[in-house]
């Protein structure tokens, strides 16, 4: 079950930094929860942190995204794999961009030869 933030949200900014999955972001008027990233803190905490901290109690289960704990656990595992793969993908992308721009990588620079004495 993914959570959602209702119109009662007062934009207090408490929930967003506490979300371990970066599922909460500012929407056009109030904060929103990305149901593809929300695990209700399964894999991180016993209770959803946003619900625990919300001062106006405006974060119920989203009726359109009812999921089992097993589904939430699978999402948690997927998000963890993506987080592990991201640094490698970012490095490969940066190297490809540098090569396309003709930049020389420091590890590809040949050492200068010593002058013969």
Task: Break the fold down into its secondary structure elements and pairings.
Elements: E1 24-26, E2 31-33, H1 49-53, H2 69-100
Antiparallel strand pairs: 1-2
How would you describe this protein?
With 117 residues, this protein is mainly alpha-helical. It is built from two helices and two strands, in the order ββαα. It has helices at residues 49-53, 69-100, and strands at residues 24-26, 31-33. It has a two-stranded antiparallel sheet. The longest helix is centred in the C-terminal third of the chain and has 32 residues, at 69-100. The chain is globular, with a radius of gyration of 22 Å. The termini are far apart. The relative contact order is 0.17. The model has no long low-confidence stretch (mean pLDDT 86).
């Amino acid at each position: 079950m993914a959570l959602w933030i209702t119109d009662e949200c007062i934009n207090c900014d408490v929930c967003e930094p506490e979300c371990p999955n970066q599922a909460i972001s500012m929407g056009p008027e109030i904060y929103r929860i990305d149901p593809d990233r929300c695990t209700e803190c399964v894999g991180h905490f016993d209770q959803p942190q946003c619900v625990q901290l919300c001062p106006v109690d405006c974060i119920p289960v989203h009726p359109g995204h009812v999921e089992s704990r097993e589904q939430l656990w699978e999402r948690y595992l997927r998000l963890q794999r993506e987080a592990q793969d991201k640094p490698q993908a970012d490095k490969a992308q940066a190297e490809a961009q540098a090569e396309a721009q003709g930049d020389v990588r420091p590890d590809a620079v040949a050492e200068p030869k010593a002058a013969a004495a």
